[in-house]
Structure of Carbohydrate ABC transporter permease:
Amino acid sequence: MKVRALQYVVLVGVAAVFLGPLYWLVSTAFKESAEIYQWPPAWWPDHFTWENFALAWKAAPFDRFFVNSTVITVAGTALKVTNAVLTAYAFAYLRFPGKKVLFFLVLGAMMVPGHVTLLPNYLTVATLGWINTYAGLIIPGIGSAFATFLMRQHFLTLPSEVTDAAAVDGAGHLRTLWRVVLPMSRPMLVTVVVITAVEEWNNFVWPLIVTNTASMRTLPVGLLILKDEEGLANWGTIMAGTLLVLAPMLLIFLIAQRYIVGGITQGALKG
């Protein structure tokens, strides 16, 4: 009984560490300016106000930012997941020279910090004339070593009898992938889609570098506009803007969470 009580105490403490900042963000978004700066701090707004959201929406073209983020997230996720699935299928089921070497290179790519590729990608995009375009925002990021690794490891856990039966029936690789492998991989596929979508939606550095007009900015970059030129901040407005950015991905995560726990662990240990 004592052990169980201790477990609950630890779980509540861990939850407080992760949920505390989120709670403070939400409560601050609905506070008036006087409540935000008062001491001791007000943990709950005395008077709920929607003014911060209106100010955030008017301070920057958030409608355009939302469209840009949506286009980049949908297109980027679709291309990245498609690329990862096809590559993972090749590593799991096809035989070709240098297969192991190429897979180790994919694993090595997971160890390279993303910021290392910023300059080469920027120079490439600038040479192609893709600065301030959707192509420049999306195309350089369509390869994902992590997504490829997760899908490949999962494919290896599927019973070989099923794919062998599809081959006997005359199914080609694309038909086998679409009709047999992917339906059996739904939890992992949803997991990869959610992880990729969150990564695309929250991407800040690359959109900041490769765009130079407000019409092509994304939501994370748009949050910078909520600060005035002197560096003073209206934290109620900033928190409201942050909540607007956070809400879509939080909703997607809540809808797909039942797939994620099972999907992220499937095949993790099989080589």
The chain has a mean pLDDT of 84.
